[in-house]
Amino acid sequence: MRSKLFVPGTRPELFVKALGSEADAICLDLEDAVTPSRKGEARSVVRKLLQDGSAGGSGKTLIVRVNGMDTPYFDEDVMAVVQPGVHLVNLPKPESPAHVRRAIAAIERAEQANGVDTPVGLLLNIETPVALRTAAALALADARVVGLQLGLGDLFEPLGIDRREPAAIAQAMFATRIAAGEAGIYAYDGAFADIRDAEGFRADAVLSRRLGYLGKTCIHPSQIAIANDVFRPTDDEIAHALEVIEATREADANGVGAYVVDGKMIDIPFVRRAHAIVASARSLGLLPA
After folding, report:
1. pLDDT tens-digit profile, the chain (289 residues)
2. In 159-258, at which residue ranges do the beta strands (DSSP E only) sit?
3. Which side of the chain, N or C, has fewer Cβ within a 10 Å radius?
4. So where are the chain's domains?
């Protein structure tokens, strides 16, 4: 899921284009992109798309961002959008592990009501001070939590923190990634609002990839190619990973526990990383299966 494209739930004319784009995932949005007066309309439009099966058959990871649990829309949103083919519900502003578990209970009720056989996962937004401080506890709240998504706009703007401040960005990204790592789930990068600033988007994406993030949110189709490029394993990374795996086979055959590849000491953590790079490369068609 290198790239995830947001699509407002009130813009059905964009659905076909989004599903035909190069984005790895589509996030149908019922929250920030929809005004209160159109929440019911967006919910109905998204439910219709999900029920006709075309979105689920697109081959993309299908996500719906619902409204927060502190709004009057949450329960109806979940009941409408937890449909066959949906992979993830994106939950804004979780406040506590109990909060997360209540959201999952709502998803489970919707699965039963809508005949969903494959459990729907939960992607949690880390976009408030309390969520950043308790991110690991949120991530560990339930096995249905599959990822933490960092939302720097929501996190920084109310606090008067400059969205472009490198030190603040790096600290928030690092804290979220470590929390996700404690739970054994992925961290995902949020949106970059300045659509005209392609280099700013790329810089954000490069940093998040260096910090171990899975991919980046796109709010415009022009950002998709950048995200896909940044979060693709490089040719050098793939070549080094293959060397590490081959050296590991030889070391195992000779009973060697630690060894050197390209001047670097290699042991188990590096071997695991090499296998992850090769698996990613194969999933993208960069290496034969």
Report:
1. 999 999 999 999 999 999 999 999 999 999 998 999 999 999 999 999 999 877 777 789 999 999 999 999 999 999 999 999 999 999 999 999 999 999 999 999 999 999 999 999 999 999 999 999 999 999 999 999 999 999 999 999 999 999 999 999 999 999 999 999 999 999 999 999 999 999 999 999 999 999 999 999 999 999 999 999 999 998 888 888 888 888 888 877 877 777 888 888 888 888 888 888 898 889 888 888 7
2. 186-189, 216-218
3. C
4. 3-230, 235-283
- Global pTM exceeds 0.70: yes
What is the fold, at CATH topology level, of the domain defined by 3-230?
Answer: TIM Barrel (3.20.20)
